[in-house]
Amino acid sequence: MKINQTQRHQITAIIDDVDDMTIATLRADGFPQATTVSYFNDGETIYFATSPDAQKAENIAHNDRVSVTINRPYKNWNEIEGLSIGAKARRLTDPEDFQKASELLLKKFPQAVEYADESTGDVSFFRLEPVVISILDYSKGFGHTELVEC
Q: Containing domain of residue 26, as a range?
């Protein structure tokens, strides 16, 4: 099913409201690896930063297909709302894209400047290009999901 405006609004609202996601990548030995990372976004476009030699960066270099979950906090199951996203991860190489990602990171997480190390300066930015999104919304019924193509 193609995404409609209501779904697009819900997806963007969840992405905007949450700070962390779990990203699953595929290791070279075939095992999946799930990692929690902070992310930042521009609308539905999600970015994250990591060390260039991090396992997830190496995994993406071998296979750019990733799965991501983003979930709002909840107190009971009727409040569960989140996203499960199948995406392609792209390492940013263009200086303008890198600059934009840096600005988005500092806008959402101003404290990131405290962790910048001038001696290494090594950081890789990745942009996620969603292919398919499953919207979880238990307020519409236990286990309710809507699968949309991007």
A: 5-149
